[in-house]
Amino acid sequence: MAPIDSTKTPIVWILGGPGSGKGTQCDKIIAKYGFTHLSTGDLLRAEVQSGSDRAKTLTAIMERGELVPNDVVLDLLKEAMVAKADKAKGFLIDGYPREKSQGEAFESAIAPVTVIIYFEASSETLTKRLLGRALSSGRADDNEETIKLRLKTFLDNNDQVLAQYPNKLKRINAEDTVDSIFSQVEQILDPLVTK
For residue 106, what pLDDT is reported? Predict the structure, then answer.
């Protein structure tokens, strides 16, 4: 028995390179639809700040720009989803899956995904946005060298993830304005919430 019934509670994977505007669009989705937002990055950063043994291992991995092991990320996601399942109107899973095996593991451990929204932007645009963000964020992974590594890691894995779900995938041009992008998001999500 799956812990979440995605026929009643939509599960939306929000994908896009670092700097593609996922966070901004998620904020707008939450405001309009009241979905529960789970960012694997936020879950990992919260775990790192907890100071647990798991946190020390995660810190080292993240500082090297590498991907955190699948089972750790899936455990954090599943714990968070199950904790919020009774109140959730829908789930936004932000920045996950990052590789093909994670998508498979998510669907077998939690529930089938309802739709995948992919925010597409060029590497040049993403790098420019991330360098701009680095000036104000203080994030350890927002420097040019780490950014290039993150983009390469993302692109190498993302195509395989997208290829796995041709019927559930919706691509959005993330080079556009915030409002124009959101109107495309609404066309995807409105039918899910009127069911």
Answer: 94
